Amino acid sequence: MFVQWKNELNLGNALIDTQHRMLMMLCRKLDIAIKSNESAQAIQRVMLEVRKFVEFHFVSEQNLMHEIGYPEVEAHSKIHTGLLIDLNVQFSKIHHKTEFPEDFLFELNDWLLGHLMHEDMKLAQYVNSASVRPIGEHLYEQFHLANENGQR
Ligand SMILES: [Fe+2]
Ligand SMILES: [Fe+2]
């Protein structure tokens, strides 16, 4: 079974947690598309949606790292780039039918969980103790709270 959001995945930073939640939701969307036997084109469209969000999330985390002067920005960004390259390779394999969308989802989930509990956890802890604050951090905190309270 694929990843479902659970409280243990919260790393304590509103930006990171909000985006991780969204990412997990999109993975579930892809899981549903696969299991409900949508057409190959429909599944590939959802895969593109997931991949674009992964890319977006990586840019957000990298901006955050620069904003707070995170010392491991280069190493962490390099890991992000590695996944994007892998996803691109998988994308074309699926397009040429030498791999299945299930493989894409399985590997992505596996990767995300590992990355989240190691590199992202380290980053979240650093953000919490950093003296330089990220740009507009209250925006994500407000957004996060509004969602928790069921407001718009
Ligand atoms: Fe992340
Ligand atoms: Fe990351």
Structure write-up:
- With 152 residues, the chain is mainly alpha-helical.
- It has five helices and no strands.
- The protein has helices at 14-35, 40-68, 73-95, 101-129, 137-148.
- The mean pLDDT is 92.
- The structure holds fe (ii) ion (2 copies).
Oligomeric state of the chains present here: single chain
Q: What average pLDDT do the residues reach?
A: 92
If helices are DSSP runs of H or I spanning 4 or more residues, what is the number of helices? 5
- Summing up helix and strand content along with how strands pair, one would put the structural category as mainly alpha
**Helical content class:** over 70%
Structure ligands = fe (ii) ion
Instruction: Return the string of H and E elements.
Output: HHHHH
Tell me the major beta sheet: none
Instruction: Give the overall silhouette.
Output: globular
| Gyration radius over CA | 16 Å
Q: How far is it from the N-terminal to the C-terminal residue, by CA?
A: 31 Å
Short description:
Helices cover 76% and strands 0% of the residues. With 152 residues, the protein is an all-alpha fold.
What topology emerges from the helices and strands here?
Layout: H1 14-35, H2 40-68, H3 73-95, H4 101-129, H5 137-148
Helix pairs in contact: 1-2, 1-4, 2-3, 2-4, 3-4
